[in-house]
């Protein structure tokens, strides 16, 4: 295949990858092309627990005669995985489908998941790597960094007023954002392995911290609740209801993530309040932010983030818009939702 054709296919794969949701798994896109570079099928990974990009593309390809499969190329943003995790190995699926060629951008490098390229080559598949590697690394840069540090990927939830407040002067805080925003937040809860809150949030709001749908019914998957802080929380705290919780008696966010990782959890939601946001931001341990903003001012009251030790503008902790399915900013009823990455 002409180089310009494979580059175009990889660009499309990178674009498709962005339709998914990052978290426990990276964003991955895949395109299957024939020898001329004509697209036969496309696929992307939607999020942990769902089919991988390669499997998605193969499913959409459907039946194809062996000679055509042999001549086809799978162009994918990440090295096909080699392990059985929540889904089966992509290297095997590609071999079983009889696909003759694979071009991937960046190696997986995971201790379990890596090694797909070697498996493919051993089975006689033509494999090349490194096409648009910089772009593919950039696409998941925080995810790769989190895995290299052997810590979970972190999502910070901020729900605030236009002037960045999470409670009024008298402490009232329910509800700043709309029911539509709350529903989105619950959908995020249903995708993570754990939610982290501070003891202050437990005392102030006594939240249940489970994930509920628009009818108030619990989703099938419920996150573990992690309470960070030194104070004893009340014996009858609502989040203790089903026993799927624990307290970490520390103020160190690294220790919290180490504990979460030791439980086999690879994606956490940092939900509240300001002390949690501050501690994780200060330690550069926030991989993405969902910022829910209500169109109101309070002018006083608690801010969403506290002291970060920043004295001058040039030292600001900077984030950038990170599109999810083409949109970094969404309208949720009266509110806006902005998705950001460092
Ligand atoms: C791929 N294609 O689309 C993705 C991959 O638990 P699992 O089965 O979902 O596996 C997750 C691991 O697989 C993840 O940590 C990463 O190494 C890789 N992700 N691999 O071949 C994909 N999302
Ligand atoms: Zn895979």
Automatic annotation (TrEMBL):
Transmembrane segments: none annotated. Pathway: Cofactor biosynthesis; riboflavin biosynthesis; 5-amino-6-(D-ribitylamino)uracil from GTP: step 3/4; Cofactor biosynthesis; riboflavin biosynthesis; 5-amino-6-(D-ribitylamino)uracil from GTP: step 2/4. It comes from the Bacteria. Its EC number is 3.5.4.26, 1.1.1.193. Binds 1 zinc ion. One of its GO terms (molecular function) is 5-amino-6-(5-phosphoribosylamino)uracil reductase activity. The keyword Nucleotide-binding does not apply. Signal peptide: none annotated. Residues 4-128 form the CMP/dCMP-type deaminase domain. InterPro entries: APOBEC/CMP_deaminase_Zn-bd, CMP_dCMP_dom, Cytidine_deaminase-like, DHFR-like_dom_sf, Eubact_RibD, RibDG_C, Riboflavin_Biosynth_HTPR. Gene3D superfamilies: Cytidine Deaminase, domain 2 (3.40.140.10), Dihydrofolate Reductase, subunit A (3.40.430.10). It catalyses: 2,5-diamino-6-hydroxy-4-(5-phosphoribosylamino)-pyrimidine + H2O + H(+) = 5-amino-6-(5-phospho-D-ribosylamino)uracil + NH4(+); 5-amino-6-(5-phospho-D-ribitylamino)uracil + NADP(+) = 5-amino-6-(5-phospho-D-ribosylamino)uracil + NADPH + H(+). Its cofactor is Zn(2+). The keyword Zinc applies. Keywords: Hydrolase, Metal-binding, Multifunctional enzyme, NADP, Oxidoreductase, Riboflavin biosynthesis, Zinc. In the C-terminal section; belongs to the HTP reductase family. Converts 2,5-diamino-6-(ribosylamino)-4(3h)-pyrimidinone 5'-phosphate into 5-amino-6-(ribosylamino)-2,4(1h,3h)-pyrimidinedione 5'-phosphate. This is Riboflavin biosynthesis protein RibD.
């Amino acid at each position: 295949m002409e180089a310009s054709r494979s580059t175009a296919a990889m660009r499309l794969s990178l674009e498709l990858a962005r339709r998914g949701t990052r978290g426990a798994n990276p964003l991955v896109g895949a395109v299957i092309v024939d020898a001329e570079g004509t697209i036969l099928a496309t696929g992307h990974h939607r999020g942990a627990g769902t089919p991988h990009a390669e499997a998605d593309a193969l499913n959409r390809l459907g039946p194809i005669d062996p000679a055509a499969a042999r001549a086809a190329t799978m162009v994918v943003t990440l090295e096909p995985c080699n392990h059985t995790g929540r889904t089966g190995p992509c290297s095997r699926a590609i071999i079983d489908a009889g696909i003759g060629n694979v071009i991937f951008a960046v190696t997986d490098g995971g201790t379990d998941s890596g090694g797909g390229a070697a498996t493919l080559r051993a089975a006689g598949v033509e494999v090349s790597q490194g096409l648009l590697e910089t772009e593919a690394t950039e696409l998941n840069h925080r995810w790769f960094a989190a895995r290299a540090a052997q810590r979970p990927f972190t999502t910070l939830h901020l729900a605030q007023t236009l002037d960045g407040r999470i409670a009024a002067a008298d402490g009232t805080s329910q509800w700043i954002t709309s029911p539509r925003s709350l529903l989105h937040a619950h959908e995020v809860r249903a995708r993570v392995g754990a939610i982290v809150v501070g003891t202050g949030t437990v005392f102030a709001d006594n939240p249940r911290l489970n994930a509920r749908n628009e009818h108030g019914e619990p989703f099938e998957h419920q996150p573990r609740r992690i309470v960070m802080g030194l104070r004893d929380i009340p014996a009858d705290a609502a989040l203790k209801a089903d026993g799927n919780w624990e307290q970490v008696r520390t103020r160190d966010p690294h220790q919290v993530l180490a504990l979460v990782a030791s439980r086999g959890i690879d994606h956490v939601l940092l939900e509240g309040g300001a002390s949690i946001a501050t501690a994780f931001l200060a330690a550069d341990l926030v991989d993405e932010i969902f910022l829910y903003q209500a169109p109101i001012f309070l002018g006083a009251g608690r801010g969403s983030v506290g002291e970060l030790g920043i004295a001058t503008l040039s030292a600001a902790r900077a984030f950038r818009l990170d599109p999810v399915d083409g949109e970094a900013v969404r309208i949720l009823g009266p509110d806006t939702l902005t998705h950001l990455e460092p």
